[in-house]
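haha ok so turns out i had the wrong file open the whole time. this is the CORRECT one, sorry everyone. sequence first:
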Amino acid sequence: MSKLVIEVHDASDLMPKDGHGSASPFVEVEFGLQRRKTSTKYQTLNPCWNEKLVFNLRNPRDLPSLMIEVYVYNDNKHGQPKNFLGKVRISGISVFSEQEAAVQRYPLEKRGIFSHVKGDIALRVYVLHGENGYVHHRRSGNSLKKSSTFGYGGDKTKNKERVLRTFYSLGSDTASMGSYSDIGNNEVVPSGSSVLQMLVPGQKADYGVIETRPPLAARMGFWGRDKTASTYDMVEQMKFLYVRVVKAADLPVMDVSGSLDPYVEVKVGNYKGVTPHFEKNRNPEWERTFAFSKERLQSSLIEIFVKDKDLSKDDFVGKIVFDVPEVPERVPPDSPLAPQWYKLVDKNGELLRRGDIMLAIWMGTQADEAFPDAWHSDAHSVDQDSMMTTRSKVYFTPRLYYLRVQVLAAQDLVPADESRPLDAIVRVEIGDQGRTTRPATIKGINPEWNDELMYVAWEPLDEYIVVSVEDKDIVIGRVLIPVRNVPQRVETKKPTDALWYGLQRPSYVEAEGGEKKDKFSSRILLRMSIDSGYHVLDESTQFSSDLQPSAGQLRKKSIGILEVGILGARNLVPMKAKDGKLTDAYCVAKYGNKWVRTRTPLSNLNPLWNEQYTWEVYDPYTVITIGVFDNCHVNGKDDAKDQKIGKVRIRISTLETDRVYTHAYSLLVLTPSGLKKNGELHLAIRFTCTAWANMLTQYGKPLLPKMNYVMPISIKHIDLLRHFAMNVVAAKLARAEPPLGGEVVEYMMDVEYHMFSLRRSKANFHRIMILVSGIQSVGTWLHGVCRWENPITTLLMHILFLVLVFYPELILSTFFLYLFAIGIWNYTSRPRIPSHMDAQLSQAESANPDELDEEFDTFPTTKPTDLVKMRYDRLRSVAGRVQSALTDLATQAERTLALLSWRDPRATTIFIVFTVITAVVLYVTPFQAVALTTGLYLLRHPRLRYKLPPVPVNFFKRLPARSDSLL
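then structure:
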């Protein structure tokens, strides 16, 4: 028999119940009809039990449907009823094996409305499967070996099992999640109501989407709305203490040399922010802002020190102290608080004769304009050089254009080697994009190519087009053409004029594009244009976030506004566990040419961002992508790459207008070892339509601009141009401050989406089978009607058929009315959650390791020959099945053509005689009589049917195909 083991470790910050500011708590656990309890720890609000409670589990398959109830009581010695201290309800879905289980902290919940509960409890729950149904375990109540720490540090080989994670327990009354509230550096618990998991049917609980109910101003209506939170109504309001250090004047000299290297230290409790120091400056200007989270303030005093930087020990210059309760609160949309001059005091509180400092101190929220560039207390351990990488920023990628270069001909080329014939090719480069023409169709010193090359140009169009004529990899002529001089072509197929450009020897071409005159007279004929009527594809059209043309005059007005509140994440996996650290997570959102990046809370498995961003929506058939990454640049490592934690894609057309969606999305990442869940991302999303007429007419317009259909670009160019565009976007974002690395851009834009993947092929085949199964179900139902499996249904179909035969004008109206009825019927079962990453649809759970290893293999492959041979044979096997299906399809098509091709003269004679007789019969017989006879024949009773195939089917299968002509 299997066993359910619950390790009760400790509890903290319990509610005092004995009337003397303390309590005597014990834990009682109920599972099914079984009940166990721990010993009592007297006179403590932070008890430590370290005991095991073991329960019998008859059938482990029933565990997901069971609940584990953990109660904490206060033990009264005088026989009085025990006092309730809190409870936790744990679903059996979240119980794993002993190897996968970790110590988790659960916040204690109330039993009723009037219960007074606080604190949390640390538990470890797992299942043991013993041999022959027997498990060797110690008797309940035996002490566990006490852990030295619950965090990271010490013995790293054991710390993996000691990671403390905060989970939300399942409630019994409401389907909502309360707001996030910090209880420590790495722990977040819901305040208010508990969580109820709303899972997608057919999907595992681990990868589901959880519907939440945070107290957002957008959902609370007039009575619950915070009047100061109108701008940031999609996130929970977070209070910050802002200290703006502007400058100082007439500071006293501390060194004997008469110099002063001043800097400012802002200290609130244990949090300390420092400005850069200035050398030999008594009137420095810092202009630095510090933000301290109000929930984490550890002191009621704000201490601001001015110090002198020294080699050995920094000297004290002066200070000033403020009381936190006296700090004014700034309410948006008030103007920024004006800084004021303050006199510095010495260590004893006496005013200094010299030394003033200009400061501004106020209490604000994340809506403050000083928030993005401020130093934050949750990133206090980062040095000054890495501070920029922890701040939130908004990026705009440049507008992209397609550049078309048609290389026509050249004249009077000078060969690099006159002893051999000239075989010239042309190489055209712009930035990092380089392509060459095919060999000349007419060779010699006056060659002709007539080849077209395409590139991606970007604003402000300050690059040069480098055109080089090469002979056997030797440049024999070159010209530099500014991109801004190339004519633009908007919505026209008329080609631009071809121009002759004089070629110069490479040694005569200057880097600025200028030319030196010499007797070199070679020239090249080019036709170039910037096609601004296209939409430049920088990602797959299946989840593109922008479909607008490049030309500004062709862009349409927006149809709505998309507001996204990035609330936070929870249960993140420690990405830096090998280094003894947790996760420095930040979030990146991309829609159109606007990218946003949240700030980076350090060493937090449950970070809170509560940042809101807005995008204009031009087309509902677009997708917003939101990814979470681990910041690897906070330690000053410039060459480090940020690690991906997971991402979420949401299609705008699946959102109802003016509805606020609040869900926690699973962060799934596919690795060579399998599917991995790295945590959950909590988002609030709202799509507001501002132009209903434009949005509805958008459904009837082409997906891409006009030029993408009038002059379509070939497939071979599309993939290469998409790669060029992605490189341009990645290069521009990498040069921003703080930069977005290439690995972030590639992951957000799914660069490797077009590479072959057997897993993705299975997923697409499964999608097709879902569609085919619907058609098959309709055919099965019609077959059952014809077979009289349900006589009542068949009789109703007879009546409907007779009505449609005698009143044919009702056929189309009945058909569309039936579709209307199906749509109304399906409205009640419509999706209530936005689209998300579906692990089951992606076939990510069932993929075997070899398929994943092949998917993550480089191109070209670097695997051993035997492994490549095995995969090649497997691909041949799959291709053989596809080939068999295509052979059957081709055979049926050729049999259809053989009806009139006289390949089988007797079959064709029979068919044309049948067509003549049928034409005469249909001419003299009313159509209703023919339709009535045909329908009644198809709906005839099974007693009038034969089990052998009908004559038309036998005749069709005997028609010849060309399969026998294949080698």
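Confidence is low (pLDDT under 50) at residues 131-205, 222-229, 511-516.
again sry for the mixup
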